[in-house]
Give the backbone structure.
Amino acid sequence: MDSDARTASSDHPEVAHLPQRKAVRVRDERPWWDTFPWWGVIISAVLIWMAVQIVQNDDYNLAWERIYPGLRITVRTTFQAFGIALIIGLVTGVGQISRNVVVRNLSRTYVEFIRGIPILPLIFTVALIVVPWAQDRIGYKIGFEMRATVTLALIYGAYMAEIFRGGIQSIPPGQTEAGRSLGLSGRQTMRSVVLPQAMRAIIPPLGNDFIAVLKDTSLLSVLGVLEITQKTRQFSASTFKFREGYFVVAFIYLCLTLGLSILLGVLERRMTRDRKGER
Amino acid sequence: MDVHTDSSTTSMISLRGLTKTFDKTIHAVRDFDLEIVEGEVVVIVGPSGSGKSTVLRCINLLEIPTEGFVTVDGFELTDVRTDIDHVRAEVGMVFQQFNLFPHLTVLQNITLAQRKVRGRGRAEAEEEAARQLARVGIPEKADAYPRQLSGGQQQRVAIARSLAMDPKVMLFDEPTSALDPEMVKEVLDVMLELASEGMTMVVVTHEMGFAKAAADRLVFIDEGEVVEVGPPEEVFSNPRHERTRAFFDKILY
């Protein structure tokens, strides 16, 4: 335990690790300005201001013209990497709680291995060492965009494995017992009983990972993949307009991530509404 | 010990030398023998931690016995070659915590296994579900979600869900222990009716009234061993063992 926290509430050392909260007067209804999402107003204002800059200023406009075409690759690699990662995550997440000793340990090894290495070295390792080695053997040339996508998918697959595992383990064992005692097989119970319920716990963190994948496609620029960050680097390096380039690319990323974040919020609210009154 | 060996009756459940050990040292069940014939209602009672739930859960292999044999309807469950899913479909189980599937409606709860395990079509499964819901007295709740039902109603749905599989045996693991007092009777009524229809039942419960009304035999177990078996009236009024007497002194007014 943190020793500072202990002295902060020395009267009750046993609760010193609990977050200390200020007392708040309980009120039935909060005024509209208390619950109003001001943060949305502030961010919208900033985005609008950025958009106005880009439209009105010729230098920003030029940056936009040069960077925007990279959006296709950014979006494409995001969806592809996320899609593959979902499958890898589901398989290795379920694999980690498998009864099969080989499957369980292989899954665990993969997850621990990937999680233990930072993304950038992994991208270099897979794209510049593993893939060339593999393509020499299979005799099929793999482009840099594909290498990058696969690497991102492998990395996020490991993170998602943990999300799936946690979601599945959050479902009380009684649910599995009920399914199995009705004669459903282990696989049927997983598919019809456990996974649908686990999705509620799984979807919000998966959404976070989706946003994270989107942002981490910027790392693919180190392989020369022409997504928006690489486009920005090229633009800025050739024109020395660094401020304009990174202003525009930040604007694009913000629009994408905030849009996704709003979508996720809607999804989450819909799911919690379903859940009201559940025991 | 009173064991049915009458050749005119068929053995439905047979437990021989059943032993379940947790963590290699804790004996939950020790060398347990019990024969249950078709149509018999057996109530298992015993102090908390005596192993009564473990015995029940061994009958459909929710717990895997450490030693011994479990035979249900002629299938040797402890044999690795036995298709355990096939046998489980014939053995209904009702849990203390109901364990309904919260993401499915009452109707879907009851049709899921019928369709996936029994291979029934949607119409047939729903018809069967409606029949079972009527039987447990809540035909109007088919489209409700479990969370919208009271505890008693949820438990009756759980019973209907098991009955829809046409089981040969029904196991009840403290089916009324998680219920508010005013809901105990509606569940016990369903169980009583089931017993009167000739269902083979093994019930772990603390409801001595139910034991008196429905049980053919009462099994008192303590520390994982059978202490006393007999007709409920006899075991209540004239227990032969000190441990049985001490237990009933504590729970009966």
Q: What stands out?
A: The interface with chain B takes residues 172, 174-175, 177-185, 188, 192-193, 196-197, 277-279 of chain A (CB under 8 Å). The first helix of chain A runs from residue 3 to 8. Residues 66-275 of chain A form a domain with the MetI-like fold fold (CATH 1.10.3720.10). Chain A has one domain: 66-275.
